[in-house]
Design brief:
Layout: H1 6-18, E1 30-34, H2 41-50, H3 70-85, E2 89-92, E3 111-114, E4 131-137, H4 140-149, E5 152-153, E6 155-158, H5 163-172, E7 177-180, E8 196-197, H6 208-214
Helix pairs in contact: 1-2
Length: 233
């Protein structure tokens, strides 16, 4: 949102997008700059991504390592190329990254793709790599409408200093895991992991009481004891 704290929001989203080289299930792949946020967020997140030190994960000072396989690198680079062909502007292109002192490893540098069309298939793709696509919306209403059209509903977060905006988002957004100023909206173990729409497969959510219920034979007893009947205890 335009009123989000700029420094904190940038730091948290950068960590979500590029931590573990984006290879975790709730890493942010798409960020929407709402209204006036378009004036500062693209540049801010690109600067944060540029500052990350990429290299071997065991080397001191390294903040982001390689992706897991050469095939993963090829797939990620293909998705970057696809988004550019659809009109996204690469503010930072990880395909061009030069990793010092690395003779091997499947490296993709931090990538920021600005202006991805909201209707692009990439907006519904879990890239599982260090790629953040930016979509622009004029209002919170428009941003939530874009989320509603998405086939998936695993997690979403809002960054704002407005309690009213946060409450509206939490009540109306059609995703199972919701964050407010949180980069990875993963619930603690005693809460259900609540993916919605195409992000959920099965009959019960994992974690919490839902997970226990899967292994439990539940029993329901319905009773009636009319007053004229004698009950003995």
């Amino acid at each position: 949102m335009p009123d989000a704290d700029r420094e904190t929001t940038t730091d948290i989203i950068a960590d979500s997008a590029y931590g573990c080289a984006g290879q975790r299930c709730l890493a942010v792949s798409v960020a929407m700059a709402v209204g006036g946020a378009r004036e500062w967020f693209p540049e801010s997140i690109a600067d944060a991504a540029t500052s990350l030190k990429v290299g071997g994960g065991l080397d001191e000072g390294v903040q982001m390592g390689p992706v897991i396989t050469p095939a993963s690198r090829v797939r990620i680079e293909g998705l970057i190329a696809q988004s550019v062909s659809e009109g996204a502007c690469p503010l930072l292109d990880g395909r061009l990254a030069s990793i010092a002192q690395q003779s091997s490893g499947s490296f993709v540098g931090p990538t920021v793709l600005d202006g991805l069309p909201a209707a692009s298939p990439l907006a519904e793709t879990e890239i599982f790599g260090p790629v953040l696509s930016l979509v622009h919306a004029s209002s919170l209403k428009e941003a939530m409408a874009i989320v509603r059209r998405n086939s998936y509903g695993n997690a979403s977060s809002i960054f704002t200093t407005s309690g009213a905006a946060a409450r509206k988002f939490c009540n109306e957004i059609p995703t199972g895991n919701v964050g407010v100023n949180i980069g990875v909206a993963a619930p603690m173990a005693y809460f259900p992991f609540s993916g919605w729409k195409g992000s959920f497969f099965g009959v019960l959510h994992a974690q919490g009481r839902d997970a226990v219920a899967f292994y439990t034979a539940e029993k329901v007893v319905i009773e009636r004891w009319p007053q004229e009947w004698s009950r003995r205890f």
